[in-house]
């Protein structure tokens, strides 16, 4: 049975299959803009994309996963200037932090992680193709705009009401576009190339239309073309990217290459809410992984919570939900321990799913796997897992082996890890932060800093116990 997934473009559930003659399933996901910490709403998207990739791989597809880094736009340039850093140093710092969070959350590393700045020539070439084909025009100041009226099926992804086009006058951050708006022939036309402005500082590149920088939308079109070709299998992103970003990607790509069917399948996930409210800086509810770790939660627990709702519906994040993750995972661990003993396996066997890959058996977890394959129903899958775990009755060693293989595979698809060390809940944030900084210093072999931080912990009445793979914090 192939994995079935809802497609935003056709509004139908469709099977995800390799195209005839192709060996890999090409998957492009819009990546982070690296100007600050990614929050748990961003990570809901990246985690669900990771679950999709893992599910496809467990189902036997070879996936090529491309996720870009947006390292040049208004926000990154402003952030670098405010920090007194070069754009490169500023975005590298935030990229490194993003990668650290991805590792902690168990997100598989994309096969290609292209950066916008590394693909300026490809973006310029694509803009040139659009100009040559009459889909773009150069304004007096050297900016280049996409001519929306030249694209007959513009808006097909969101089944766009043309009156909505006026919102193009705003950029992705909801701010009004540059003052050169009057240069545009129509308010719905969007910038492919932005001519150099004094406030851009040193951040400009040469082009046939003068110095400047690319617009945001063209990045993803150029990078997906470079790494997956003119058409590929699946494009993912948060639902907020549907319009205008993904509509613009389709229009640019199909008009530049002349090939229809840019992405065969569109995978969009709904928002994350916090305590029933929309997440926003002003609400003060933009949690980051670091903040949750400082409260004593683990990244694995956050992952469990983030996949606890169906991707097509909003997920309401609460700290009470986070607290419920630990006992739920502990219940799985107790069950797995019992079955591992019955099967004659060790915990290490369970942690290495590759050793089970040859096994086609799912044991009693076959229904959970079926549910996951049906529109990536992660909450239904988790519910079915707990149904099995809650079953009473004798289990034979043979059944135990099958069950353990099945559970290991399904948890691998979900990216949930059992038997990982957990900090004590209730460690004060400042103490957890000291502990994390000392651990990082030790990993970086900065022993002087590690010693200093240990002294600070001792002074605060805490001790840190190091293990091979982490640490525990205990009151003295
Ligand atoms: Zn994108």
Which blocks of ≥5 consecutive residues have pLDDT under 50?
Answer: 171-176
Number of helices: 15
CATH superfamily of the largest domain: HUPs
Overall body shape? globular
- Summed over residues and divided by their number, the pLDDT gives a mean of 91
Question: If you had to describe this structure to a student in words, what would you say it looks like?
Answer:
Strands 4-3-9-10 form a four-stranded parallel beta sheet, with helices on both faces. The longest helix is centred in the last third of the chain and has 25 residues, at 319-343. With 476 residues, the chain is an alpha/beta fold. The termini are far apart. A hairpin with a 5-residue loop joins strand 5 and strand 6 (144-146). It has helices spanning 40-58, 74-83, 87-104, 120-132, 216-228, 242-257, 289-294, 299-306, 319-343, 347-351, 366-373, 378-389, 397-414, 429-443, 447-459; strands at residues 3-7, 12-16, 25-29, 63-67, 136-138, 144-146, 190-195, 212-214, 234-238, 266-269, 272-274, 277-278, 315-317, 462-467, 470-475. It folds into three domains: 3-269, Rossmann fold (3-Layer(aba) Sandwich), CATH 3.40.50; 273-414, Isoleucyl-tRNA Synthetase, Domain 1; 429-463. Helix 1 (40-58) crosses helix 13 and helix 2 (74-83) crosses helix 3 (87-104). It contains 15 helices and 15 strands. Residues 30, 220, 245 line the site of zinc ion.
């Amino acid at each position: 049975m192939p994995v079935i997934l809802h497609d935003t473009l056709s509004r139908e559930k469709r099977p995800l299959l390799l195209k005839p003659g192709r060996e890999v399933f090409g998957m492009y996901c819009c990546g982070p803009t690296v100007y600050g910490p990614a929050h748990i709403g961003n990570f809901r998207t990246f985690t669900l994309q990771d679950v999709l990739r893992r599910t496809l791989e467990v189902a036997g597809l070879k996936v090529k996963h491309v996720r870009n880094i947006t390292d040049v736009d208004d926000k990154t340039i402003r952030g670098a200037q405010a920090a007194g850093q070069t754009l490169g140093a500023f975005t590298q710092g935030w990229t490194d932090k993003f990668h650290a969070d991805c590792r902690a959350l168990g997100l598989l590393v994309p096969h290609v992680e292209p950066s916008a700045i590394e693909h300026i020539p490809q973006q310029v070439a694509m803009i040139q193709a659009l100009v040559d084909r009459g889909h773009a025009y150069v304004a007096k100041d050297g900016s280049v705009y996409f001519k929306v009226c030249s694209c007959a099926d513009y808006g097909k992804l969101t089944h766009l009401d043309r009156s909505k086009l006026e919102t193009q006058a705003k950029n992705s951050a909801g701010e009004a576009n540059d003052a050169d708006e009057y240069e545009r022939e129509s308010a719905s036309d969007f910038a492919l190339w932005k001519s150099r402005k004094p406030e851009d500082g040193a951040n400009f590149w040469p082009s046939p239309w003068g110095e400047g920088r690319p617009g945001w939308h063209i990045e993803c079109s150029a990078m997906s073309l470079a790494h997956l070709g003119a058409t590929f299998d699946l494009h993912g992103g948060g639902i907020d990217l549907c319009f205008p970003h993904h509509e613009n990607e389709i229009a640019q790509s199909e008009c530049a290459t002349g090939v229809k069917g840019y992405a065969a399948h569109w995978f969009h996930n709904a928002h994350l809410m916090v305590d029933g409210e929309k997440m926003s800086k002003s609400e003060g509810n933009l949690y980051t992984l670091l903040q949750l770790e400082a409260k004593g939660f683990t990244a694995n627990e956050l992952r469990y919570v983030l996949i606890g709702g169906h991707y097509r519906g909003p997920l309401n994040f609460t700290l009470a939900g986070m607290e419920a993750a630990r006992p739920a995972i502990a219940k799985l661990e107790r069950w797995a321990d019992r079955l591992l003993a019955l099967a004659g396996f060790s915990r290490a066997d369970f942690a290495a799913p590759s050793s089970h890959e040859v096994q086609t058996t799912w044991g009693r977890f076959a229904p959970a796997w079926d549910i996951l394959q049906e529109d990536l129903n992660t909450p239904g899958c988790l519910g079915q897992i707990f149904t099995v775990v809650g079953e009473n009755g004798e289990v034979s060693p043979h059944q135990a082996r099958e069950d353990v293989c099945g559970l290991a595979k399904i948890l691998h698809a979900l990216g949930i890890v059992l038997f990982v060390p957990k900090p004590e809940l209730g460690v004060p944030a400042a103490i957890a932060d000291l502990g994390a900084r000392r651990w990082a210093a030790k990993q970086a072999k900065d022993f002087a800093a590690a010693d200093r931080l240990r002294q600070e912990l001792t002074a605060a009445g805490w001790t840190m116990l190091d293990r091979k793979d982490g640490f525990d914090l205990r009151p003295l």
